[in-house]
Hints:
Blueprint: E1 5-9, E2 19-21, E3 32-36, E4 45-51, E5 57-62, E6 65-72, E7 79-84, E8 94-99
Antiparallel strand pairs: 1-2, 1-8, 3-4, 4-7, 5-6, 5-8
Amino acid sequence: MRIKVWCILALSLLSTSLIATSINATPAYAASITLNPTSGTVGTRVIVTGDGFTGRLATIKWDGKVAAERIPLSEKGRLEYTLSIPQAAKGSYTIEVTDDSHWSG
């Protein structure tokens, strides 16, 4: 069983840059993910949006720790969720979004 993982790297506290990468375990298609705003201080509300998911529910992780789970995905594979930046030191962090789709082959 494989799980699709999409990552957005480097949501930096007090930074102005965002490095976005897509890691897709299947060659079938690519999902897109955006953050708005792309940086902020602790407590800043960040809207995480994405398209191209195939599952029904998503999980968002902040540096490997679950920040939100069981987020409904639309029938068209769209995600929209508001996440508050947790307590953390200034720096870059990884945000991972996974859905619950499973496939073989």
